[in-house]
Amino acid sequence: MSRGFPVLIVDDDFHVATLHASYVEAVPGFRVVGHAGNAQQALQAFHSLRPELVLLDVYLPDGSGLDVLRQLDCDVMMLSAAADVTSLRMALHRGALAYLLKPFGQEDLAQRLRSYARYRRLLEKSIQLDQDIVERARRSLLGTETSALSSPARTRSATEQSILEALTGAQSASGGAALSALEVAEQVGVSRATAQRYLSSLADDGAVDIQLRYGTTGRPEHRYAKRR
């Protein structure tokens, strides 16, 4: 994943698909690789584009998105106007990670995508699972990790507090600017590796957002901002 999680959008309404694509592209770490307007196109696009996440409608002109769902070997979120219990249960039974009812706003989808990104980051840095990681991954995916870990019962370390203060100060002084791990390290007085470790943990907790800055060559630079 050099330029973010590749996302395929499946919706028979081109204007809706375009709108949803703009929502996705506004979330750091995600990029839209294609759009399919029916079930057949969806399967063809999946095999040719190999997305890691598909945003799939239930109502398609040549079939049901629920039938497409069980043929996709990747992560899937359902975005649909299908508000019946049967569709929801079938979607979850067949492996959908989320079910978002249309119409919805940009932030509604953004929250699901950020939760998905935290879930993926947590698993990708875990060499071997234990039950705590399993539960944290599940909470991240459901979007409950932030509330669970940022409750008053959890006391942050002095280094975490200093990092959050540095991010807050940068955002206040520069109108929302994000900092790199090196910039955080210099402000807090720790090594870059230490800052990176704490920033990754805070991102997994949902306290910090990761933004990607793309240059002309090489890997994108990770920059960090305190979640508002």
Q: Specify the helix fraction band.
A: 40-55%
Name of the level-1 CATH class of the largest domain: Alpha Beta
The outline comes out as: elongated
Order of helices and strands: EHEHEEEHEHEHHHHEHHEE
Structural class: alpha/beta
> What would you say the CATH architecture of the largest domain is?
3-Layer(aba) Sandwich
Give me the CATH fold name of the largest domain. Answer: Rossmann fold
Q: What is the straight-line distance between the termini?
A: 27 Å
Query: What is the mean predicted local confidence, pLDDT?
Result: 86
Stretches where pLDDT falls below 50 for ≥5 residues? 146-153
Q: Output the strand order for the largest sheet.
A: 2-1-3-6-7
- The helix count comes to 10
Using DSSP, what is the number of strands? 10
Radius of gyration: 19 Å
Number of domains: 2
What does this structure look like?
The chain has 228 residues and is α/β, with parallel strands linked by helices. It folds into two domains: 5-113, Response regulator (Rossmann fold, 3-Layer(aba) Sandwich); 153-228, Winged helix-like DNA-binding domain superfamily/Winged helix DNA-binding domain (Arc Repressor Mutant, subunit A, Orthogonal Bundle), CATH 1.10.10. 49% of the residues lie in helices and 20% in strands. A five-stranded parallel sheet has the order 2-1-3-6-7, sandwiched between helices. α5 (106-124) packs antiparallel against α6 and α8 packs across α9. Mean pLDDT is 86; it is low at 146-153.
List keywords for this structure.
Arc Repressor Mutant, subunit A; Rossmann fold; 228 residues; alpha/beta; 3-stranded antiparallel sheet; 5-stranded parallel sheet
